[in-house]
Amino acid sequence: MEASRIGAWAVVVASGAGRRMGAGIAKQFLALEGEPIIIHTLRALGSWPGLKGVVVTAPESELETMRELIAAAAAGSGAGPVLRVVAGGAQRSDSVRIGLEALKEAADADIVMIHDGVRPFAPVDKFDELIGAAYPDGALFVVPVADTVKRCSGDSVVGTEDRSALALAQTPQAFPYKFILDAHRWAHEAAVCVTDDSSLVEARGYSPRAVVGSRANFKVTTPEDIPLAQFMIAGAAKMRIGHGYDVHRLVDGRPLILGGVEIVHELGLLGHSDADVLLHAIMDALLGAAGLGDIGRHFPDTDARWKGASSLDLLEVVGGLLRSDGFKVSSIDATLVAQRPKVASHVAQMVANVAQALGIAAQLVNIKATTTEGLGFEGREEGISAHAVAALSGGAR
Residues 365-383, buried b or exposed e (16+ Cβ, 10 A)? Predict the structure, then answer.
């Protein structure tokens, strides 16, 4: 059945203690590139447009922590369509059953994907195939066994398995909602405990279908997994580059504001807002990197709201637009071009103003100034120009 014709939901199991990690906290809360693993997992699932909603299970003692993390992520770059967070059970199968019971929105014939909270690299590009294979007995991602498989007794090898018929099970595993809910209710009543949901379906005499998954879709389980996961998260961040350029005429009777700093000078810059040419170039670079047009689109000079506006306030608005689209500022490099005045003594404050407006570290902002040795309109002191380059990472686009 085509994925587009059915409702698709997810239960994300994140209620384990993570004892094998030995980190002192549950592994789903360990940070990768500044965010907990569970948030990376939820964001990956939420990037699939067919997902209608997610129920997350968490340790009972960490329910509020999980809810706060998801709420904070939702206010920033998102954490997918999370419906609710519920306390899991003593065993994984208990947590899955509880999560399924809490998924009140799903219809009997809808598909639910059951996924480990510490698998942040799910092959989203294969979800349509997985969902389409889930009728009638369910489907799961598998990867063929690449290494020779030995059967051991203690520290002795006692045999070699035929790896051609073996595969490693992954999540998400997808099933018709009522089908898998009934299976978990049966397992609970019969005290049947399994390590994955397809095993439970097999125990009832059904044969779920195998869909080739991805070796990148590994489960973060031991300390050795963390460096690889860190590397993959960092490498997966999409880098976007934008360039900004702006120029304003110097006139009498206007204050000279550059980088949010009012500088004593006999001339100021003419413009609808405060004409801060440096911040305007930076905003255009940021908007360009994000594919969001330019400042003329967002703050047109035909709109009275922006007359005399502080460009620092406008920069804060731009920062909000970037965050709402899931972007993070990686770096900003800007050059101010003016014959006069000298601005070297103001650069540190300009950097601080930009960093504060965007909510980023000052180390990510570089501002410098140059003259044109008397050449051009800048050299004749008719105006001031600015160039900026901005790099963004992440983003939902």
Answer: bbbebeeeeeeebbeeeeb
